[in-house]
Amino acid sequence: MEQYYGLFIYGLSLLTMGGIYAVLTLGLNVQWGFTGLFNAGVAGFLAVGAYVQAILTTPICTAHLGCYDWPIPLAMLAAMVLSAAVGWAIAKICIRLRADYLAIATIGIAEILRLVFKNEIWATNGPRGVSQIPKAFEGLPAPWNTIAFLGMVLGLVAAIYVALELARRAPWGRVMTAIREDESAAAAAGKNVEAFRLESFVVGSALMGLGGALLAQYLKQIDPQVSDPLTATFLVWVMLVAGGSANNRGAVLGAVLLWAVWSGSEILSQHFLGLLSPNGLGLLSIKEAGDWSIRFAYLRVFLIGLILQFILQKRPQGILPEVRPKPHPRLRGSTAPVASKGE
Fold it and tell me: Global pTM?
Protein backbone atom coordinates (compact mmCIF):
# COMPACT_ATOMS: atom_id res chain seq x y z
CA MET A 1 0.00 0.00 0.00
CA GLU A 2 2.81 2.38 0.83
CA GLN A 3 4.34 1.71 -2.59
CA TYR A 4 1.15 2.78 -4.36
CA TYR A 5 0.90 5.86 -2.16
CA GLY A 6 4.47 6.76 -3.09
CA LEU A 7 3.65 6.39 -6.80
CA PHE A 8 0.57 8.57 -6.29
CA ILE A 9 2.65 11.32 -4.65
CA TYR A 10 5.24 11.05 -7.40
CA GLY A 11 2.48 11.46 -10.00
CA LEU A 12 1.27 14.59 -8.26
CA SER A 13 4.82 15.95 -8.20
CA LEU A 14 5.29 15.13 -11.88
CA LEU A 15 2.11 16.94 -12.88
CA THR A 16 2.90 19.91 -10.64
CA MET A 17 6.35 20.49 -12.12
CA GLY A 18 4.96 19.85 -15.59
CA GLY A 19 2.34 22.53 -14.95
CA ILE A 20 4.95 25.02 -13.73
CA TYR A 21 7.03 24.40 -16.85
CA ALA A 22 3.86 24.77 -18.93
CA VAL A 23 3.51 28.32 -17.57
CA LEU A 24 7.10 29.03 -18.64
CA THR A 25 6.63 27.53 -22.12
CA LEU A 26 3.41 29.49 -22.63
CA GLY A 27 5.32 32.66 -21.76
CA LEU A 28 8.08 31.76 -24.22
CA ASN A 29 5.44 30.90 -26.82
CA VAL A 30 4.11 34.46 -26.64
CA GLN A 31 7.57 35.80 -27.39
CA TRP A 32 8.91 33.26 -29.89
CA GLY A 33 5.85 31.46 -31.20
CA PHE A 34 3.65 34.52 -31.64
CA THR A 35 6.16 37.23 -32.52
CA GLY A 36 9.46 35.53 -33.31
CA LEU A 37 11.45 37.08 -30.44
CA PHE A 38 14.45 34.87 -29.60
CA ASN A 39 14.63 35.16 -25.80
CA ALA A 40 17.50 32.99 -24.57
CA GLY A 41 17.30 34.45 -21.06
CA VAL A 42 14.25 32.64 -19.69
CA ALA A 43 16.25 31.76 -16.57
CA GLY A 44 16.64 35.43 -15.63
CA PHE A 45 12.91 36.17 -15.60
CA LEU A 46 12.17 32.91 -13.77
CA ALA A 47 14.71 33.90 -11.11
CA VAL A 48 13.21 37.37 -10.72
CA GLY A 49 9.77 35.90 -10.08
CA ALA A 50 11.14 33.26 -7.70
CA TYR A 51 13.13 35.71 -5.59
CA VAL A 52 10.30 38.25 -5.45
CA GLN A 53 7.94 35.52 -4.22
CA ALA A 54 10.48 34.33 -1.66
CA ILE A 55 11.42 37.76 -0.31
CA LEU A 56 7.86 39.06 -0.04
CA THR A 57 6.33 36.01 1.65
CA THR A 58 9.01 34.71 4.05
CA PRO A 59 7.98 35.55 7.64
CA ILE A 60 11.45 34.96 9.15
CA CYS A 61 14.68 36.21 7.59
CA THR A 62 17.87 37.01 9.42
CA ALA A 63 20.33 36.92 6.52
CA HIS A 64 18.44 38.45 3.59
CA LEU A 65 15.87 41.02 2.59
CA GLY A 66 12.34 40.05 3.50
CA CYS A 67 10.14 39.44 6.54
CA TYR A 68 7.24 41.15 4.74
CA ASP A 69 4.90 38.17 5.18
CA TRP A 70 2.76 39.15 2.19
CA PRO A 71 -0.26 37.04 1.20
CA ILE A 72 0.81 34.46 -1.36
CA PRO A 73 -1.56 35.60 -4.17
CA LEU A 74 -0.43 39.21 -3.78
CA ALA A 75 3.22 38.18 -3.90
CA MET A 76 2.56 36.15 -7.06
CA LEU A 77 1.04 39.23 -8.66
CA ALA A 78 4.04 41.30 -7.58
CA ALA A 79 6.38 38.68 -9.09
CA MET A 80 4.57 39.01 -12.41
CA VAL A 81 4.62 42.81 -12.28
CA LEU A 82 8.33 43.05 -11.45
CA SER A 83 9.25 40.46 -14.08
CA ALA A 84 7.20 42.40 -16.61
CA ALA A 85 8.96 45.62 -15.55
CA VAL A 86 12.36 43.99 -16.01
CA GLY A 87 11.20 42.67 -19.38
CA TRP A 88 10.04 46.15 -20.40
CA ALA A 89 13.38 47.71 -19.46
CA ILE A 90 15.28 45.05 -21.39
CA ALA A 91 12.96 45.28 -24.39
CA LYS A 92 13.30 49.06 -24.60
CA ILE A 93 17.03 48.55 -25.09
CA CYS A 94 17.16 45.29 -27.06
CA ILE A 95 13.85 44.96 -28.90
CA ARG A 96 15.29 46.33 -32.15
CA LEU A 97 17.83 43.51 -32.24
CA ARG A 98 17.02 40.53 -34.42
CA ALA A 99 17.32 36.77 -33.99
CA ASP A 100 20.78 35.76 -32.77
CA TYR A 101 21.67 39.29 -31.60
CA LEU A 102 18.62 39.37 -29.31
CA ALA A 103 19.51 35.88 -28.07
CA ILE A 104 23.04 36.97 -27.17
CA ALA A 105 21.73 40.07 -25.38
CA THR A 106 19.16 38.13 -23.31
CA ILE A 107 21.72 35.46 -22.39
CA GLY A 108 24.02 38.17 -21.08
CA ILE A 109 21.25 39.86 -19.10
CA ALA A 110 20.18 36.54 -17.56
CA GLU A 111 23.77 35.90 -16.48
CA ILE A 112 23.97 39.39 -14.96
CA LEU A 113 20.81 38.71 -12.96
CA ARG A 114 22.20 35.35 -11.78
CA LEU A 115 25.40 37.00 -10.56
CA VAL A 116 23.41 39.72 -8.78
CA PHE A 117 21.34 37.10 -6.95
CA LYS A 118 24.52 35.21 -6.09
CA ASN A 119 26.59 38.13 -4.80
CA GLU A 120 24.07 40.54 -3.22
CA ILE A 121 24.03 38.64 0.07
CA TRP A 122 22.15 41.36 1.96
CA ALA A 123 19.15 40.86 -0.36
CA THR A 124 19.21 37.21 -1.39
CA ASN A 125 21.53 35.47 1.10
CA GLY A 126 23.93 34.76 -1.76
CA PRO A 127 24.69 31.13 -2.64
CA ARG A 128 22.77 29.88 0.40
CA GLY A 129 19.56 31.28 -1.00
CA VAL A 130 16.19 31.79 0.68
CA SER A 131 14.45 29.04 2.62
CA GLN A 132 11.19 28.55 4.52
CA ILE A 133 9.17 30.00 1.64
CA PRO A 134 5.44 29.71 2.35
CA LYS A 135 3.52 27.45 0.01
CA ALA A 136 -0.14 27.76 -0.87
CA PHE A 137 -2.38 25.24 0.93
CA GLU A 138 0.50 23.79 2.97
CA GLY A 139 -1.68 24.01 6.07
CA LEU A 140 -3.93 21.25 4.75
CA PRO A 141 -3.27 17.64 5.78
CA ALA A 142 -1.32 15.43 3.38
CA PRO A 143 -1.94 14.61 0.62
CA TRP A 144 -4.66 17.23 0.20
CA ASN A 145 -2.12 20.05 0.45
CA THR A 146 -0.27 18.63 -2.56
CA ILE A 147 -3.49 18.02 -4.47
CA ALA A 148 -4.73 21.56 -3.77
CA PHE A 149 -1.44 23.09 -4.93
CA LEU A 150 -1.57 20.99 -8.09
CA GLY A 151 -5.14 22.17 -8.64
CA MET A 152 -3.98 25.79 -8.36
CA VAL A 153 -1.16 25.24 -10.86
CA LEU A 154 -3.41 23.47 -13.36
CA GLY A 155 -6.06 26.16 -12.91
CA LEU A 156 -3.51 28.87 -13.73
CA VAL A 157 -2.30 26.91 -16.78
CA ALA A 158 -5.89 26.58 -18.00
CA ALA A 159 -6.61 30.29 -17.45
CA ILE A 160 -3.42 31.34 -19.25
CA TYR A 161 -4.15 28.94 -22.10
CA VAL A 162 -7.67 30.32 -22.61
CA ALA A 163 -6.46 33.93 -22.44
CA LEU A 164 -3.67 33.31 -24.96
CA GLU A 165 -5.99 31.44 -27.30
CA LEU A 166 -8.41 34.38 -27.27
CA ALA A 167 -5.50 36.76 -27.86
CA ARG A 168 -4.13 34.60 -30.70
CA ARG A 169 -7.47 34.66 -32.53
CA ALA A 170 -7.99 38.37 -31.93
CA PRO A 171 -6.59 41.13 -34.20
CA TRP A 172 -3.71 41.48 -31.72
CA GLY A 173 -2.64 37.90 -32.32
CA ARG A 174 -2.94 38.19 -36.10
CA VAL A 175 -0.75 41.27 -36.06
CA MET A 176 1.82 39.38 -33.97
CA THR A 177 1.84 36.59 -36.56
CA ALA A 178 2.24 39.10 -39.35
CA ILE A 179 5.20 40.69 -37.57
CA ARG A 180 6.80 37.27 -37.11
CA GLU A 181 6.36 36.42 -40.79
CA ASP A 182 7.17 39.79 -42.38
CA GLU A 183 7.85 42.91 -40.32
CA SER A 184 8.04 45.12 -43.39
CA ALA A 185 4.58 44.09 -44.55
CA ALA A 186 3.15 44.66 -41.08
CA ALA A 187 4.74 48.12 -40.89
CA ALA A 188 3.44 48.92 -44.38
CA ALA A 189 -0.06 48.06 -43.14
CA GLY A 190 0.30 50.80 -40.54
CA LYS A 191 1.19 48.71 -37.51
CA ASN A 192 3.64 49.92 -34.89
CA VAL A 193 5.95 46.92 -35.04
CA GLU A 194 8.20 48.01 -32.18
CA ALA A 195 5.25 48.59 -29.84
CA PHE A 196 3.76 45.15 -30.58
CA ARG A 197 7.12 43.45 -30.09
CA LEU A 198 7.47 45.27 -26.77
CA GLU A 199 4.02 44.09 -25.66
CA SER A 200 4.86 40.51 -26.58
CA PHE A 201 8.12 40.56 -24.65
CA VAL A 202 6.49 42.07 -21.55
CA VAL A 203 3.58 39.60 -21.50
CA GLY A 204 5.94 36.64 -21.91
CA SER A 205 8.23 37.96 -19.16
CA ALA A 206 5.29 38.32 -16.77
CA LEU A 207 4.29 34.68 -17.33
CA MET A 208 7.87 33.55 -16.75
CA GLY A 209 7.86 35.50 -13.48
CA LEU A 210 4.66 33.69 -12.49
CA GLY A 211 6.36 30.38 -13.24
CA GLY A 212 9.24 31.41 -10.97
CA ALA A 213 6.83 32.33 -8.18
CA LEU A 214 5.15 28.92 -8.41
CA LEU A 215 8.52 27.16 -8.45
CA ALA A 216 9.68 29.02 -5.33
CA GLN A 217 6.56 27.90 -3.47
CA TYR A 218 6.85 24.32 -4.64
CA LEU A 219 10.52 23.94 -3.72
CA LYS A 220 10.17 26.10 -0.56
CA GLN A 221 13.85 27.00 -0.99
CA ILE A 222 15.65 28.77 -3.81
CA ASP A 223 19.25 29.75 -4.56
CA PRO A 224 21.11 30.99 -7.66
CA GLN A 225 20.84 27.49 -9.15
CA VAL A 226 17.20 28.32 -9.91
CA SER A 227 18.55 30.31 -12.87
CA ASP A 228 20.68 27.43 -14.18
CA PRO A 229 20.51 27.84 -17.99
CA LEU A 230 20.23 24.08 -18.48
CA THR A 231 16.94 23.57 -16.65
CA ALA A 232 15.56 27.12 -16.80
CA THR A 233 16.28 28.04 -20.43
CA PHE A 234 17.46 25.09 -22.54
CA LEU A 235 14.82 22.69 -21.22
CA VAL A 236 12.03 25.26 -21.70
CA TRP A 237 13.10 25.84 -25.31
CA VAL A 238 13.18 22.11 -26.01
CA MET A 239 9.70 21.75 -24.53
CA LEU A 240 8.31 24.48 -26.76
CA VAL A 241 10.03 23.35 -29.96
CA ALA A 242 9.15 19.69 -29.39
CA GLY A 243 5.55 20.40 -28.42
CA GLY A 244 4.90 22.84 -31.24
CA SER A 245 5.94 26.46 -31.44
CA ALA A 246 3.06 28.95 -31.92
CA ASN A 247 0.60 26.32 -30.65
CA ASN A 248 -0.48 26.81 -27.04
CA ARG A 249 -1.61 23.22 -26.71
CA GLY A 250 1.77 22.13 -28.05
CA ALA A 251 3.53 24.28 -25.46
CA VAL A 252 1.61 22.61 -22.63
CA LEU A 253 2.02 19.11 -24.08
CA GLY A 254 5.75 19.58 -24.63
CA ALA A 255 6.23 20.79 -21.07
CA VAL A 256 4.48 17.79 -19.51
CA LEU A 257 6.07 15.18 -21.79
CA LEU A 258 9.62 16.49 -21.62
CA TRP A 259 9.48 16.95 -17.85
CA ALA A 260 8.25 13.35 -17.52
CA VAL A 261 11.26 12.21 -19.58
CA TRP A 262 13.67 14.43 -17.63
CA SER A 263 12.37 13.35 -14.23
CA GLY A 264 11.85 9.70 -15.17
CA SER A 265 15.38 9.36 -16.56
CA GLU A 266 16.80 10.60 -13.25
CA ILE A 267 14.82 8.02 -11.30
CA LEU A 268 15.81 5.21 -13.65
CA SER A 269 19.49 6.18 -13.51
CA GLN A 270 19.46 6.24 -9.69
CA HIS A 271 17.67 2.90 -9.58
CA PHE A 272 20.20 1.41 -11.99
CA LEU A 273 23.14 2.74 -9.95
CA GLY A 274 21.58 1.44 -6.76
CA LEU A 275 21.25 -1.98 -8.34
CA LEU A 276 24.93 -2.06 -9.31
CA SER A 277 26.28 -0.44 -6.14
CA PRO A 278 27.88 -2.35 -3.23
CA ASN A 279 24.47 -2.48 -1.52
CA GLY A 280 23.00 -4.14 -4.62
CA LEU A 281 24.75 -6.57 -6.92
CA GLY A 282 28.11 -5.11 -5.96
CA LEU A 283 29.33 -4.72 -9.55
CA LEU A 284 30.49 -1.14 -8.89
CA SER A 285 32.52 0.30 -6.06
CA ILE A 286 31.38 3.42 -4.22
CA LYS A 287 33.80 5.55 -6.23
CA GLU A 288 32.71 4.01 -9.54
CA ALA A 289 29.06 4.53 -8.64
CA GLY A 290 29.79 8.21 -7.96
CA ASP A 291 31.56 8.56 -11.30
CA TRP A 292 28.66 6.96 -13.12
CA SER A 293 26.23 9.23 -11.32
CA ILE A 294 27.99 12.23 -12.87
CA ARG A 295 28.00 10.56 -16.27
CA PHE A 296 24.29 9.82 -16.09
CA ALA A 297 23.60 13.52 -15.47
CA TYR A 298 25.19 14.30 -18.84
CA LEU A 299 23.45 11.37 -20.47
CA ARG A 300 20.11 12.92 -19.46
CA VAL A 301 21.03 16.07 -21.37
CA PHE A 302 22.07 13.89 -24.32
CA LEU A 303 18.71 12.09 -24.15
CA ILE A 304 16.77 15.37 -24.27
CA GLY A 305 18.86 16.54 -27.21
CA LEU A 306 18.32 13.21 -28.97
CA ILE A 307 14.55 13.49 -28.50
CA LEU A 308 14.64 17.01 -29.91
CA GLN A 309 16.60 15.89 -32.95
CA PHE A 310 14.20 13.00 -33.56
CA ILE A 311 11.16 15.27 -33.37
CA LEU A 312 12.75 17.89 -35.62
CA GLN A 313 13.55 15.17 -38.17
CA LYS A 314 10.10 13.57 -38.12
CA ARG A 315 7.93 16.59 -37.28
CA PRO A 316 9.86 19.84 -37.87
CA GLN A 317 6.92 21.95 -36.64
CA GLY A 318 6.59 19.98 -33.41
CA ILE A 319 4.14 17.36 -32.17
CA LEU A 320 1.25 19.83 -32.51
CA PRO A 321 2.04 22.23 -35.37
CA GLU A 322 0.71 25.76 -35.54
CA VAL A 323 -2.91 26.11 -36.67
CA ARG A 324 -3.62 29.52 -38.12
CA PRO A 325 -6.86 31.13 -36.90
CA LYS A 326 -9.58 31.71 -39.45
CA PRO A 327 -9.42 35.15 -41.07
CA HIS A 328 -11.59 37.91 -39.71
CA PRO A 329 -14.95 38.22 -41.57
CA ARG A 330 -13.91 41.64 -42.88
CA LEU A 331 -10.79 40.08 -44.46
CA ARG A 332 -12.28 36.97 -46.06
CA GLY A 333 -11.52 36.98 -49.72
CA SER A 334 -8.70 39.47 -49.16
CA THR A 335 -5.01 38.74 -49.58
CA ALA A 336 -3.95 41.31 -46.99
CA PRO A 337 -1.25 39.84 -44.70
CA VAL A 338 -2.45 41.59 -41.56
CA ALA A 339 -5.59 42.99 -40.05
CA SER A 340 -6.68 46.43 -41.17
CA LYS A 341 -5.56 49.38 -39.15
CA GLY A 342 -8.99 50.02 -37.73
CA GLU A 343 -9.11 46.67 -35.95
Answer: 0.91
